[in-house]
Amino acid sequence: MKAKMAKKLLAGLLAGVSLMVLPCMEAGAVPVLNGSNGHYYEVIDSPITWSDANSAASAMTHLGAAGHLVTITSSSENIFLTSTFGALAIHLHWTGGVQQPGSTEPADGWSWVTGEAFAYSNWEPGEPNNSGGTEDRIVFDHGVHADGKAWNDLNGATSADGYVVEFDTVPVPEPSIVGLLGFGLTGLMLARRRVRGRTSN
């Protein structure tokens, strides 16, 4: 009887541990949570054009939310990306910033792929400059300033070093260890009562 109870206890504990581990098991890098806005971010290192990066980011999901190229709408978000991943890690990585065709060059008509307002920017001094007359996408480039890694306009057909993905989702709380153990122990106690009831009859 004790051996059976021990097996049930072990099975309950293993089930609890698997519930905690399985949500974290994903291929590649794990997206990082920005606690101030509930969004997750991931840096992808792969030489890629803006269009291909945009398609790849849109095909990604995390916690049920579709990804998109990062849209940076505040200084705190830009600082978070710089401090979390490092200025070198996001250097020459695409964002979701795009200039609409026919806009007055070089500074007008910028927008985000999600349609969010383009109310914040962190251009490197002298940027955007539409060098060569074809720069219409935003990439992390140049130095680091008070607001974090600076931005540059770049031709979208250029192969940058990678891209940054954003997932607009508030995380679903994972069950705590104490809660899982409590749940498992409650089940074991009920099973034990049933066994006692059978043996006493």
From TrEMBL:
Keyword entries, A-Z: Signal
Annotated SMART domains: CLECT
Domain named C-type lectin: residues: 36-153
Record's signal peptide: 1-29
This protein's record includes keyword Signal: yes
Entry annotated with the keyword Methyltransferase: no
Name of the protein: Lectin C-type domain protein
Species for this entry: Candidatus Accumulibacter cognatus
